[in-house]
């Protein structure tokens, strides 16, 4: 029996109260040059801060100094910072069980209510934002280049992305698809064959690498031991790893292997009930072999 989806754990609001506008005001615009979006994008200090940032322990830097912010899976709130402080952003992410990736950047924002001490010829300020995500932030999903509300050009500069090592793409695999609280329930493939290759259970800290090793190990083994009938070996090309929870408490990390890649559309297994207990799924991610995703070909 399948359960209805779990309530989502991540908050849709900021994790901390944003600083008041003037406290993170950047004096660049009026003090040093024309106050335009193009000037903001070209401002070398933003690039310098982005390129100079060191990657926090436990994270992988997935992109540096883009002119776009992330549109990843599972928004988990944001905070603003008074300086481009990647380690403080990481500390906040690490403190939240819903945050597995974050994006830090300078955003050109309009000055809405400037204190009287402000230079009134300034129309823009730089807000340093730290945005938290459940799913990985990647170059591919860094797609938000800004907008023009009420004629004011909001643009993004110095955008860096960081993903927790434990969910980041293991070597040889693609960036994960975030499946939240659902596991892949693969149907038969396009020629009516089963692509399921079995599962493994891991205890200890969640780490996608453990499942990647299982997938690569299965592939190597089946290549070395091809079927006696001469048919092509069925090798692992895709895996789905997630936490199994019993009555809301994490029990283990499950790792399910497949010979072909599947998408979000078949992530339909959210758990089951057994003997009065509820078994559910959390932190579900899927990864494909980076060079050979395993695509079904009709004969
Ligand atoms: C305000 O900005 C203008 C340039 O836009 C500059 O000439 C002027 O010195 C500034 N005034 C103050 C008080 O910063
Ligand atoms: C680069 O990083 C170092 C060490 O974190 C810091 O002292 C320096 O101010 C940074 N430079 C820039 C341009 O951000
Ligand atoms: C990905 O697939 C290719 C082709 O089947 C294989 O050679 C390679 O070892 C696989 N990568 C991993 C990380 O298992």
Task: List its traits.
299 residues; alpha+beta; 2 domains; 5-stranded antiparallel beta sheet; 5 helices; elongated; disordered N terminus; binds 2-acetamido-2-deoxy-beta-D-glucopyranose; signal; Apple domain-containing protein
Provide an overview of this structure.
This is Apple domain-containing protein. Keywords: Signal. The strands form three sheets. Strands 6, 8, 9, 10, 12 and 13 form a six-stranded antiparallel beta sheet that branches. Strands 1-5-3-4-2 form a five-stranded antiparallel beta sheet. It has a two-stranded antiparallel sheet with strand order 7-11. The N terminus is likely disordered. It has 299 residues and is α+β, with helices and mostly antiparallel strands. The longest helix is centred in the C-terminal third of the chain and has 17 residues. The protein has two domains: 128 residues, no CATH class; 112 residues, no CATH class. It is elongated and about 75 Å long. Bound molecules: 2-acetamido-2-deoxy-beta-D-glucopyranose (NAG) (3 copies). One 2-acetamido-2-deoxy-beta-D-glucopyranose binds next to helix 3.
Report the principal-axis shape: elongated
SS-based structural class?
alpha+beta
String of helices and strands: HHHEEHEEEEEEHEEEEE
Cα-based radius of gyration, to the nearest Å: 23 Å
Measured between the Cα atoms of the first and last residue, the distance is: 35 Å
Number of helices, counting only DSSP H or I runs of 4 residues or more:
5
Q: Which molecules are bound in this entry?
A: 2-acetamido-2-deoxy-beta-D-glucopyranose
What would the average pLDDT be, to the nearest integer? 85
Poorly predicted runs = 1-29
Number of domains: 2
Secondary structure: number of strands: 13
Helix content: 10-25%
Instruction: Estimate what percentage of residues fall within beta strands.
Output: 25-35%
The largest pleated sheet is described as: 6 strands, antiparallel
């Amino acid at each position: 029996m399948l359960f209805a989806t779990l309530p989502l754990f991540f908050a849709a609001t900021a994790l901390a109260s944003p600083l008041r506008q003037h406290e993170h005001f950047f004096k660049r615009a009026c003090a040093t040059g024309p106050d335009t979006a193009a000037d903001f994008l070209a401002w070398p200090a933003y690039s310098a801060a982005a390129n100079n940032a060191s990657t926090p322990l436990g994270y992988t830097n997935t992109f540096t100094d883009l002119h776009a912010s992330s549109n990843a899976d599972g928004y988990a709130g944001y905070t603003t910072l008074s300086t481009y402080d990647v380690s403080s952003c990481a500390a906040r992410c690490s403190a939240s069980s819903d945050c597995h990736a974050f994006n830090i950047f300078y955003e050109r924002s309009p000055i809405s209510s400037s204190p009287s001490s402000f230079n009134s010829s300034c129309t823009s300020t730089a807000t340093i934002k730290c945005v938290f995500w459940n799913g990985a932030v990647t170059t591919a999903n860094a797609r938000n280049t800004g907008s023009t509300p009420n004629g004011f050009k909001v643009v993004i500069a110095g955008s860096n992305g960081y993903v927790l090592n434990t969910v980041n793409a293991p070597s040889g695999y693609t960036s994960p698809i975030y499946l939240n609280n659902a596991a892949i329930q693969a149907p038969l493939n396009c020629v009516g064959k089963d692509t399921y290759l079995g599962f493994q259970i891991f205890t200890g800290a969640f780490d996608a690498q453990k499942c990647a090793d299982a997938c690569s190990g299965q592939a190597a083994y089946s290549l070395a031991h091809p079927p006696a009938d001469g048919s092509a070996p069925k090798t692992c090309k895709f895996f789905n790893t997630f936490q199994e929870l019993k009555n809301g408490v994490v029990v283990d990390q499950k790792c399910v292997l497949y010979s072909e890649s599947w998408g979000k559309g078949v992530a339909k297994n959210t758990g089951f009930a057994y003997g009065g207990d509820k078994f559910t799924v959390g932190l579900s991610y899927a990864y494909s072999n980076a060079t050979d995703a395993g695509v079904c070909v009709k004969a």
